[in-house]
Amino acid sequence: MSELPQSRLARLQYFEAHYGLWQTNAVNVGISAATALSVKNATTACRAGFDSMMVARNAAKAATLNFYNLNNTLVDLGRGVISTIKSFAESTSNPNVYVLADINPPAPPSPVPAPSTPLEFTGSVSPDGVVTLAWRPESSGPSSGVFFLLERKKIGEANYSVLGATMERNYMDPDADIGSGPVQYRVRAVRGNLTSAWTQPIVFNFGGGGGGGFTVSAVAEDGGGVKMAA
After folding, report:
1. Residue 158 belongs to what domain range?
2. 20 vs 217, which has greater pLDDT?
3. Could you write out the DSSP letters of every residue in 118-151?
4. In this structure, are 44 and 139 located in the same domain?
5. In the chain, how many domains are there?
């Protein structure tokens, strides 16, 4: 086991506790008086160095705290000035203000991407022929300002026609014309002049089953489908 403690301060305290005894009992412990005096002098110098270090350390802490406080004051003031300059540049529509002040102008807004194609497009039909369509909007990406456009194509029509638009997640078509054969539906998301791709169509074949019932001639490829209401 080592005689001396591990830490520097504990070692200093060790010699402070021993050098007096060594001076008194120098001859009896096998050291010279000069050696004992050297230990005393070194211990005294070490204590003075430690005290000086603590004074400097405390002063450094105080100086650091003072700098932090002064920096916070400066930053709060500076932020207010920068905000005022930017407001002035915006209100005067003068980009040269940013040049004169040597501050960064605001970055141009990032273009908003087109909305994503709705998911899980499904449909159901009631006994009296009312079609209800439903879908799930893509969860990723911005959703502000998005609405959904629905189109329908009946038998004999070469093109789809607009059925309606909604910001909801479902839509009801009360006029699907039972007995008219296949009726197709599709939906896409719209934001401004940007649109998503159309969903795979859902097709109801009215009157296609025995006894005038409803049959499904196709289902959406993205996992959607159709069902018959009781």
Report:
1. 119-228
2. 20
3. PEEEEEEE-TT--EEEEEE--SSS--TT-EEEEE
4. no
5. 2
